[in-house]
Amino acid sequence: MAQRAALVTGASSGIGLAIADMLGQEGYALTVAARRPEKLEAAAEGLRGKGYDVQHIAGNLGDEDTINAVVAAHGERFGRLDVLVNNAGIGMGEAVDALTTKKVDLQLNTNLRSIFLFYRAAMPLLRAAGEEHHNALVINTASISGIRGEAWLGVYSATKHGVVGFTQAMNKELASAGIKSTALAPGFVDTAMTDFIKEHVPADSMIQSEDIAEGVRFLIRTSPGCVVPEIRFEQPGGGLDSLPS
Ligand SMILES: NC(=O)c1ccc[n+]([C@@H]2O[C@H](COP(=O)([O-])OP(=O)(O)OC[C@H]3O[C@@H](n4cnc5c(N)ncnc54)[C@H](OP(=O)(O)O)[C@@H]3O)[C@@H](O)[C@H]2O)c1
Prior knowledge:
This protein is α/β, with parallel strands linked by helices and 245 residues long. It has six helices and seven strands; from the N terminus they run E-H-E-H-E-H-E-H-E-H-E-H-E.
């Protein structure tokens, strides 16, 4: 059995890939999951090339059966789960007058519902890790728009507020089981998700995915008696709030 193992969703690019890379550096065996198979395969190959023990599983994480299958495959391969990173997400900007129901459902299912279902599926493995070392950790990628809602990103903001709230609830519910949860709340990060705004906000002025991964490195090093409910990562000067409307 691996000494420590982690499962990272949305790990085929951006923030998830940077977190997976950092966890590999720290000696974690990894299951990485994301939607598009070719993109995930390439990312997993890159991680294996660095010497990490990596299993990859592609699928739509808005789907309950896929979530259960990913967690089951992780358990079968590695036999333990010390760190779960619920990071897969999508953002779709729309005015409230013209919300597309399909886009509403996609964001709810991917950004929020999947996190509830991942916790449920992973509870036996997380409880076992918590019992062993009192320091099992679940990281949930929220957003700065999960702290303050953003115009035209109302549905996305609502899902990310939900992530922050669920994270707080899990800290109360699972404290005695040795399972801690942290919500990550970044502003603009230089990933594919922010390509739409790079004409106005230069990529090199944004937060970098590695900054987020360093935040997670700090989290995995905290002692069992220290929980960090959320971390905000902001651009100097305000980021989203400073954009002209
Ligand atoms: N970039 C930012 O400015 C920013 C700021 C705050 C929060 N966030 C959050 O950070 C997280 C990661 O985003 P990112 O910026 O790193 O963007 P990214 O590079 O586009 O990564 C998104 C990841 O999620 C996966 N994914 C999306 N929908 C999925 C689905 N239905 N099933 C399985 N996997 C799915 C993607 O896989 P595919 O590419 O195959 O779909 C990809 O691996 C998201 O939760 C996002 O909301 C990002």
